[in-house]
Amino acid sequence: MKSIIDVKNLSFRYKESQEYYDVKGITFHVKRGEWLSIVGHNGSGKSTTVRLIDGLLEAESGEIVIDGQRLTEENVWNIRRQIGMVFQNPDNQFVGATVEDDVAFGLENQGLSRQEMKKRVEEALDLVGMLDFKKREPARLSGGQKQRVAIAGVVALRPAILILDEATSMLDPEGRRELIETVKEIRKDYDMTVISITHDLEEVAMSDRVLVMKKGEIESTSSPRELFSRNDLDQIGLDDPFANQLKHSLSQNGYDLPENYLTESELEDKLWELL
């Protein structure tokens, strides 16, 4: 499958006087329609990397190619139209007096007819399960609802790439699960490419591939299953999955279980076999 994002030898530092680089010579690609998670400790360069891809920061060296076009100062605004970004704190993203006004805001600069704008707003809100709240003030929504509206605002613009920068980190477990399911549906319906910066294991588990960053460099690339089989997850800013913890406890109590990572349902099946 063809890449929609190619990053080559990318380097960046926030101050020229710094001796160290915040992002140092990284190279990776993202396939069209893929869900890529980027994980690592705070300060490892994850958010800086996606801000470089989105053109919010300018690289010191290296190149970024989005859908065949090299990102430059001249075309940054055109390329940014292909990318939608949802940040950690939804309160910082609201500009409209009502939910529907907020979702419509980004469309107003696209020269669409009122009818087409209304259609896109309703479709996007319906997709994230927020159509019944369209007249509501954003301030009256829960954290999870605010993030779903933020995603609707991005989806209405029909970008090819959706970037979630710690978008689930301020939500409770139920809100996180709902948001991940919403993104899963959007990706399927719109064939969207997703990049998520996250510490959330459920979000990582949904992805096709995981990039681990450490001190501005790419430490490894693997599938979620391969990642969860590692015994140093705490060293890269992740908790041990519940299934791993349970399997370890059962193994210590005499259950003969395989060493490789098992999902919760696979672990359940294995236990039924042993009974």
UniProtKB/TrEMBL annotation:
Stored SMART domains: AAA (SM00382)
Nucleus in keyword set: no
CC per GO annotation: ATP-binding cassette (ABC) transporter complex
Keywords: ATP-binding, Cell membrane, Membrane, Nucleotide-binding, Translocase, Transport
Compartment(s) of residence: Cell membrane
Ranges annotated as spanning the membrane: none
Ribonucleoprotein keyword on record: no
Molecular-function GO term, any one: riboflavin transmembrane transporter activity
SUPFAM superfamilies tied to this protein: P-loop containing nucleoside triphosphate hydrolases
Membrane topology recorded in Swiss-Prot or TrEMBL: Peripheral membrane protein
Top-rank taxon: Bacteria
Domain ABC transporter residues, every copy: 5-240
UniProt family annotation: Belongs to the ABC transporter superfamily.
Name by which UniProt lists this protein: Energy-coupling factor transporter ATPase
Source organism of the structure: Streptococcus mitis
